[in-house]
UniProtKB/TrEMBL annotation:
Domain Molybdopterin-guanine dinucleotide biosynthesis protein B (MobB): 3-132
Pfam families: MobB
Biological processes, Gene Ontology terms: Mo-molybdopterin cofactor biosynthetic process
Domain of life: Bacteria
Native organism taxonomy: Bacteria, Bacillati, Bacillota, Bacilli, Bacillales
TM region positions: none
Name listed for the protein in its UniProt record: Molybdopterin-guanine dinucleotide biosynthesis protein B
């Protein structure tokens, strides 16, 4: 299971890039899991409280799992969850690749998205940066950079990353 993080500050294009990479991976026949860090504060929106699985959860089940027509839905209470905890859950689906949106401080290979050159001042301290995507050209000493609107170069980089064996896996 190969893991690639897509990180950056708010409105840097994380979801847009994640969706592009997801599409490329699916076209290549890969089985993909996506994990997103909900950094907007507060709990996630939940399904209707009228569903049986939500009724179980609302009545105190620490974990409620529902299955139907090929889809598993799970809600679990856990005060703190690390990316490694979530990757352990993701592993049960036997994905080839896990795309992780967020969790900047985690130790997996990552694409760093910049809103501006100033973002690089703080984001360059992150570990395992493989690629930087920026709206303008930035000279970097220790990472490859492509322009934000160069989807062809991003696709080429990702296909090489996806099919290569030099990156970290779990």
């Amino acid at each position: 299971m190969k893991v690639l993080q897509i990180v950056g500050y708010k409105n840097s294009g994380k979801t847009t890039i994640t969706l592009q990479l997801l599409k490329l991976a699916k076209r290549s026949g890969k089985k993909i899991t996506a994990i997103k860090h909900h950094g907007h504060g507060g709990a996630l929106n939940m399904p209707s409280a009228k569903t049986d699985s939500m009724r179980h959860f609302e009545r105190g089940a620490d974990c409620s799992i529902a299955y139907g027509d090929g889809v598993i839905q799970m809600h679990q209470r856990k005060q703190e969850a690390t990316l490694d905890d979530l990757l352990a859950l993701a592993a049960s689906g036997n994905p080839d690749i896990v795309l992780v949106e967020g969790f900047k401080e985690a130790h997996y290979e990552k694409i760093v998205l910049l809103n501006s050159v100033d973002d690089w001042i703080t984001l360059q301290k992150l570990k395992q940066i493989q690629l930087v995507v920026s709206p303008e050209a930035v000279e970097l000493d220790n990472a490859r950079m492509i322009l934000q609107n160069d989807s062809k170069q991003l696709a080429t980089w990702f296909i090489n990353w996806m099919d290569g064996d030099s990156h970290e896996s779990v």
